[in-house]
Amino acid sequence: MKVAMNVNGVARSGDIEPRVLLVDFLRTNLRQTGTHVGCDTTSCGACTVLLDGEPVKSCTLLAVQVQGRDIMTVEGLAQGATLSPIQAGFHEEHGLQCGFCTPGMMLVGTALLERNPDPSEEEIRWAISGNICRCTGYMNIVKSIQHAARARAEAQATPPAHAGVAVGGE
Amino acid sequence: MATATHMHGRIGESIKRKEDARFLRGKGNYLDDFVLPNMLEMAILRSPHAHARINSIDTTAASAMPGVIAVVTGELMAQHKLAWMPTLSGDTQAVLATDKVRFQGQEVAAVIAETKYQAEDARDAILVDYEILPAVTSPDGAKGAGAPLIRDDKEGQKDNHIYHWEAGNQATTQAAFATAHKVVRLTSFYPRCHPAPLETCGCLADVNSATGKATIYMTSQAPHAIRTVFALVTGLPEQQIRIISPDIGGGFGNKVPVYPGYVVATAASLLIGRPVKWVEDRSENLISTGFARDYHMTGDLAVDKDGKMLALRVHLDSDNGAFFSDAQPTKFKAGLFHIVTGSYDIPTAHVTADGYYTNKAPGGVAYRCSFRVTEASYLIERLVTNAAIELGIDQAEFRMKNFIKPEQFPYTSATGWVYDSGDYPQAMNVALEKLGYDQLRKDVEARRKKGEVTGIGIASFTEVVGAGHGAEFDILGLRMFDSAELRVHPTGKALLRMGVKSQGQGHETTFAQIVTEELGIPAVDIAVEEGDTDTAPYGLGTYASRSTPVAGAATAMVARKLRDKARKIASHLLEVDEEDLEWRVSRFQVKGSPDRAKTIQEIAFAAYTNLPEGMEAGLEGVHYYDPPNMTYPFGTYAVVVDIDKGTGQVNVRRMVAVDDCGVRINPMIVEGQIHGGLTEGFGIAFMQLITFDSEGNCIGSNFMDYLLPTAWETPSFELGETVTPSPHHPLGAKGVGESATVGSPAAYVNAVIDALSPYGITNIDMPVGPDKVWAALRSKGVTE
After folding, report:
1. Are A82 and A163 in contact (CB under 8 A)?
2. Chain B interface test: which of A91, A98, A128 (most B C-beta within 10 Å)
């Protein structure tokens, strides 16, 4: 059946079986492979995307369930060469190692800061508790989100400051 | 910018990671991200039973389903002599079962179809007729005369015993025990757990039907070793096999072995003539790929009347699962477990080990540790704390009294290890000071008087990492050296290729920094490549904390080779003798006149444009480094816990970790490794358990049953450091990726036991869940 949605601000559509999971639609049909699969049971959060701004686990949603709605994936975070505050925070605070959980973690962090621009450590830990990281031990992920919160606050205090920093590609 | 005295990114500087750029943008290249034209997908049918005879397999319905290209069974694999494969421990393992299934989750058949959904649909339509046999789920169950014979496929195998192995000296140990003032015993089970990297295992095999070349993308920590194993197993010429290990989403030892899925996918691609991808799901990962630990250990520590350790005696039974496929050096059947004397000057020791087949998944991988060092470290550190409690001596004081002293290094242990360097009292002192130990001890006593259950745990671990040297350490005979190839381009930019393979450890940054230090090329100008066996120099891979000790050393050595050549070129350019030149960060300058100098970039350009008469062009080299010894990182970890008597819940109030891994190349990355290891240690101590019911059903086959620590329960860590360089490593570095997983479980559990010691509780096996603590307290009449 036909499915259409906005992915990172771009209208995307496909003709798929009704049973196709959102994560498979993103990865296989749209070739947006930044969204990962870690557990298949909604436990690890590697497949987290934002659905109308709220974190959801795309391994437990059918693509047809998000008909006509807005999806944001890790590929939508940066503005061209400029990293978003959350991406810059993860780079500056060494919030990633193997990088497999990172897209989900950054999207949860992004949604958290939209809702709560100045979260406590406890609030951050609770927000990311649906996302498993096997490498970092979470301390630096907490710091990364705090880093992003500060950057956002500074950007708002002195508009139109740059929202993030550029990290060169390879 | 580089100046005569400063250069960004040298050793000791916490520069940000070069590899972050792609990961932050979702542009990493993990195995499942690869798609090839005409690619097929594979799904594996696994046994629902732990032990059963296969009467028949009916693939008729599955073969007729939409999109199905082939259904592969053990019978088909046997026709190509691929129904069985060798393991890394010299045993055999079924690729697809032909006679019996020997563990729940064992590979029985595979479907290759146009899409993954179609492959999985057809997999579920395969009919297998099983005759269920009694299952063996522990070494004790494997031993009895009436125990079912698991490996009836092996000629001459009459029981479930795999190996007996010993280290140390039985006679001197017995004699020392006879004189002991006190003998303290600990019987401890280090349960089965699973590394569970967030990315599961998989491969994408592409055998070109015209050329015969097999290109296999694979989640492998050791691509070169795997290539050689593949050549030996399949008979394909080794130059026709290319293993590409792309970005890896965590490994922790789980991605060292060869799994049956790799073999089936490759064979299928060869037979069908199209690329075949296989990516396991999480349950497949947890129930069939390399588990860790499952050691049943008994330790006896003999102590004299002054609290000096006299001797250590250890026996262990190892539960190896259905196939002996531990990934470890050939001559050490129980890995490096005989490092079990740890940080202590114990004059004599005797270690015995017996391995058993059971109807459980095979594996025995070193989960974030160096070949069974974790089990050894856990046993000695738990035993030492129990001994201190029993003797009425403070845990820290007892350790201090028995530490190997700094002046005793290099130190030969009772089981034959030569420790390279260490200062254990210093690491202990830094930890105690950071903790405020003396005050905290008083605080614990005060709280206990008020009825609180609280305690402090200490572990002062010593690791043995960085294998080889090659004469002692191997994988299937392949010596454990490692390699680095450095090419400096005419413009002074460089390409560094390694025989090891990062799984998130930050190699692209760390190894670039070594070149920056040795050759003065800024880290940003150095590309680091790993994982492609067609381009990278041969190496044994990344596990056992060997990347920095071995490949890091190779990097320093190859950079020094190029610097020697650079000196000759500089001498030619500056028209002075080589002896009149001195190296300053990034250039050669004339002694006494620093204005006369050539930068490494100028020298690199000259290497291709303006060479001395008779010199070979270019500025490239390769170095294969065979370490003269292992390295011995160490540290002291201290944990404070509070226990809720009503629920048995353990709260980690503080965790102080002091690590000495020698010289730190990128301290930020080192601390990140320690954070991760402390968290995995926390998970193992309190949550992570793979267990089985009496029929051999795996309990822990998904992330709802196999509990991993999240940000919510994971404590914050307080880190400290001391630096005792390795005397034999070119940079003084020792390796750190696994120290915290090795050292921390005992610290967490020691804190719990210290808290429970007033109630006479001396042991709780991991994971120390609230149910066990609650039951232990109730058994001692604590009812609050």
Report:
1. yes
2. A98
Taking every pair of Cα atoms in chain B, the longest distance, rounded to a whole number of angstroms, is: 89
The enclosing domain of B608 has a CATH number of: 3.30.365.10
The answer, for A105 touching chain B at a CB cutoff of 8 Å, is: no
Provide, as residue numbers in chain B, all residues whose Cβ is less than 8 Å from the Cβ of A135: 250, 504, 672, 676
**Same structural domain, B494 and B574:** yes
Per-residue pLDDT averaged across B206-228, rounded? Answer: 96
pLDDT digits (tens, 9 = 90+) for B483-496: 999 999 999 999 99
Active site residue B221: yes
CB-CB: which of B28, B668, B676 is closest to A137? Answer: B676
The answer as to whether B318 is a domain residue is yes
- Same-domain check for residues B383 and B498: no
Percent of chain B with pLDDT over 90: 94
Residue B763 tokens read as 């042991």
The answer to whether the Cβ–Cβ distance between A87 and B33 falls below 8 Å is no
Residue of A nearest to B283 (CA): A39
Is residue B173 one of the residues assigned to a domain? no
Q: Which of A83, A23, A161, A107 is nearest to B22 (CA)?
A: A83
Q: Are residues B246 and B316 in the same domain?
A: no
Cβ A98–B250 below 8 Å, yes or no? yes
Please list, residue by residue across A121-138, b when 16 or more beta carbons sit within 10 angstroms of its beta carbon and e when fewer do: eeebbebbbbbbbbbbbb
Q: What is the pLDDT of residue B45?
A: 98
Per-residue pLDDT tens digits for B664-690: 999 999 999 999 999 999 999 999 999
Q: What's the fold here for domain A85-157?
A: DNA polymerase; domain 1 (1.10.150)
The answer, for A123 touching chain B at a CB cutoff of 8 Å, is no
The two structure tokens encoding residue B294: 């499952």
Residue ranges making up the domain that contains B598: 20-27+482-625
Same domain, B416 and B387: yes
Does B760 fall in a domain? yes
Residues B129 and B273 in one domain: yes
One domain for residues B599 and B647: no
Per-residue tokens: B36 = 């090839």
What residue segments make up the domains of chain A, in order of their start? Answer: 2-75, 85-157
CATH class held by domain A2-75: alpha beta
Contact assessment for residue B162 and residue B142, using Cβ atoms and an 8 Å cutoff: no
* Closest chain A CA to residue B668: A94
Token pair of B542 as six digits: 């990344």
Least confident of A152-166, B537-551, B612-626: A152-166
Greatest Cα pair distance in chain A: 49
Nearest alpha carbon to residue A165 among B20, B33, B599: B20
* CA-wise closest residue to B633 among B546, B554, B715: B546
Q: Which residue of the set B46, B192, B313, B368 is catalytic?
A: B368
> What is the total count of domains within chain B?
3
Residue B633 shares a structural domain with residue B620 = no
Q: Do A94 and B16 touch (CB under 8 A)?
A: yes
**Between A73, A90, A138, which is nearest B679 by CB?**
A138
Asked about B497 being catalytic, the answer comes back as no
- Pick the residue of A39, A143, A146 with the most B CBs within 10 A to test the interface with B by mutation: A39
Phi, psi of A142 (to 5 degrees): -60, -45
Contacts of B18 in chain A (CB under 8 A): 170
In a domain, B176, yes or no: no
Of A24, A74, A99, the CB nearest to B247: A99
What are B368's two structure tokens? Answer: 């974030």
B715 neighbourhood in chain A, CB within 8 Å: none
Query: Is there a single domain that holds both residue B673 and residue B621?
Result: no
Instruction: Sort out which chain B residues have CB atoms less than 8 A from A75's CB and list them.
Output: 25-26
Work out the minimum CA distance from B719 to partner chain A, whole angstroms: 12
A74-132: pLDDT as tens digits: 999 999 999 999 999 999 999 999 999 999 999 999 999 999 999 999 999 999 999 99
